[in-house]
Specification:
The structure is a homodimer.
Chain A lengths: L15 H18 L6 H8 L3 H8 L2 H9 L5 H4 L1 H4 L6 H14 L1 H12 L4 H16 L2 H5 L4 H21 L10 H17 L5
Helix pairs in contact in A: 1-2, 1-4, 1-9, 2-3, 7-12, 11-12
């Protein structure tokens, strides 16, 4: 669908199609090469625009990735309250933010689309790089966690499992459980994964 | 397809297709109506055979469902060691069995197929009824758990999240972590969900 105009070049910065084209190119590259393997330059090349234009529209590579994922909220903004207050209680705050985003139908629908991407390798890469790299990964250094990769992956394993049961498979009683009860139930787990003792 | 003759017992002469037909009908009905909404009689009707023949080939409705899911191992057999020893330590034993099945490539592949079913509503129903009804659900009464539905759903949320990270998204360090370390890492979580204190 995007191929019809993919070879246009020399559009003025204001052209609405250019932005969409850059975004489509970015999404395709992030999906096939992953976040780490994608450069702003490559995205610009794919979209036949100058790299400066990519920066102009989207800012940094992080910004571009967040835009390409079409996340309903910017995780860097949403997660700010988790970081405030440091590692103590971060599990509870993370769950609270997470549930507030997922419980809101307008943000849940696009997120469900991302989760359904697990069926193909490109969707899996977007989900992995998105969840680990952009949403949860940045928490580790900013909360000063030891063994950051392991702790972030453990947290992700509980978060995505909660998503699967509550929102995808809609298993009761989790599907209709009060968010406060869910937070209280899962907080000890997430907090242990963030800061508790782990096997050596 | 390949499973059609793998576990035949005392097959009636001449009808190799009948078993496969019953299985296909069962799978279709379980997927659209769920486990609870499907009867042996309805499966027989769908396959145009006598209900007695369904029982003859597959035994109980539970047996038929396990066969229809094409699980690589019979969960009722695999989980026997989890039940022995009672609720104490059940989390650790459950993780050990679970990982041994998933770490074996020959059983992992069909299970991954079941997990990929999340993209459509029929696949979700099979996954939900399979994981909750046949694999984990029966543990609750046999371990004497209070609030069985809630505890089983909590356990499922961690198990399926672990599956997603380790086997589907293949996130490191979980993807190549030693099973013993994984068991030690997740056991406190699963044990708490099984027998620990939960919010009122």
């Amino acid at each position: 669908m995007s191929g019809a105009s993919s070879s246009t070049r020399g559009r003025r910065p204001g052209a609405p199609d250019t932005r969409a084209e850059i975004l489509a190119s970015a999404r395709a590259l992030f999906a096939t090469r992953g976040f780490a393997g994608t450069t702003i330059r490559a995205v610009a090349g794919e979209a036949s625009v100058d790299p400066a234009l990519v920066h102009h529209y989207f800012g940094s590579k992080d910004d571009l990735f967040v835009a390409a994922l079409e996340l309903p909220v910017d995780p860097r903004v949403a997660l700010a309250p988790v970081l405030e207050g440091g590692a103590e209680g971060a599990g509870e705050r993370l769950l609270r933010v997470f549930l507030s985003v997922w419980d809101d139908e307008s943000s849940r629908l696009p997120l469900l689309g991302l989760v359904r991407g697990v069926v193909d390798s490109e969707g899996r890469r977007l989900l992995r790089d998105g969840l680990l790299g952009v949403v949860l990964g940045p928490l580790a250094p900013r909360l000063g966690l030891d063994r950051p990769d392991e702790r972030v992956a453990l947290v992700a394993s509980q978060m995505i499992g909660l998503v699967m049961l509550r929102y995808v498979l809609e298993v009761e009683p989790l599907a209709s459980m009060d968010p406060d009860v869910l937070v209280a139930t899962y907080a000890p787990t997430v907090q242990r994964y963030l800061t508790g003792e782990l096997p050596p």
